[in-house]
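Structure ticket #2291
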Amino acid sequence: MDMSATAASPTKITASSVTSLTQYAPYALSLLRFMAGLLFLEHGMAKILGFPPHGAMPVFPEIEFFAGCVELIGGSLITVGLFTRIAALLTSGEMAIGYFLDHFPRSFFPLLNGGDAAVLYCFIFFYLIFSGGGPLSLDALVWRNR
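Resolution: structure written out below.
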């Protein structure tokens, strides 16, 4: 029996299929922004509001308190897509500083020092500085007609 006749034919990737996917790129950017902001917001909520419970909450003069404030406010702004570029600049910088102060001294390799999430956040937010929040953001809604 000829297996090629019974097997499903593989989908060919053509220029038109790539072009049709490209039209959804701005919406994928908005989804990436939303999810990264929401996950980042969770870190700020745990540090500042104690929810979800995650160890001892930092107090005012500690650097973790300031990091929690940036994560709470920046994560909120990035999630809804308001002042995305400014919030992304601050959060990307916070992750870079956090990585080099907390993770890098343990090891050069992010896998070994537990800093891979910090590196990903840093570069996702760095990308958002240049791309903005995408079409599904408050930035797009507020400044659409200006």
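Closing remark: The CA atoms of residues 38 and 129 lie 17 Å apart.
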